[in-house]
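Quick entry, no commentary yet.
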Amino acid sequence: MTETDWLLATDPAHLLDMISEPPTDRKTRLWLCACSERALVGSSVEELHAAIPVVELFTDNAATSEELLEARRTIELWMIEMCKSLNLRADALGMALQEEMVGLEQAGMQAKRILEGWQMNVPELDLLNESRAQCDLLREIFGNPVLPVAVDPDWLTQTVVSVARQMYESRDFSTMPILADALQDAGCENVAVLAHCRQPGVHVRGCWVIDMILQR
């Protein structure tokens, strides 16, 4: 695998194959949450929007089984409504999130199986656009395995850690450019790290830079 392969790939299952180390359960679950949240754009059901953060918290051992069960019930109701409206795209992503909540083993293989099933139910144009978006989310969470970055302890100033933790806990990543400035002030000149913090686009829980700082 070359860096160009990693950066230009548009098939998320292929990207998962490129990762030399098997994807961790946590990383893969957070990626599935991010993919599922994309399906909720435009939805006005507040309970549904609140369900995904519960799954994320459970992934970090910060939500109870009871909270997870309630979130699962909400998602199952959503899936039923999507089936009625024949919105197979949303239904398949909802199923991905539902299955992820069970606590699956071999999460990387499961993610690929979900994607294969989902691809059978999506119009070709939607599939292409969604696959690209899912690849972007994979790169957001897993970073670049061709050029891995090791954190320098000198970067972990109180300001850097505080900004990163605030974004992780609030799920509000609007201060990523501020994190880049704080990292530079701490002596970080790594181009990949600073570019990721400053680039436009979606950031989600599991972002490789924030995980690196918080040592998750």
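second:
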Amino acid sequence: MKGRLLVAVVALLVGSIGLAAPSRAETGSVSVVFTKGGLVIGVGGGEGVLTLRGKHYPFTVSGMSVGFTVGASTGKFVGRAYNLRGPASIEGSYSVAGAGGAVAAGAGGVQLQNANGVILQLSGPRVGAEVSAAVGGVTIRLK
């Protein structure tokens, strides 16, 4: 009887440990205004806000690209931040590779990932006259 009771208690504990460790990754909403310009080397910067658990966390965005870049544009992007482990996990360098452009007004979208595993999926209009086929990245820092 004692052996069966011990086995039952151990099974219950093992089962509850598995249930007590849910994924801590969260999803937040993001809005970013980013201005970019250049000739061959593009540079840009902007600001954004992460909204997580009803709180707002302002951040700065800076970036650079190397390749074919001509002109200037401003993007107003909104989207989601996935795999967050708290607001600080949005910080870091995000790699970007791709081609895009905006003339007068256009829509754009991007998916970025940092070393913390945070994935940003952003989309929105860009205003200006800029064409690029460049490889670069952006860095996000909380204010």
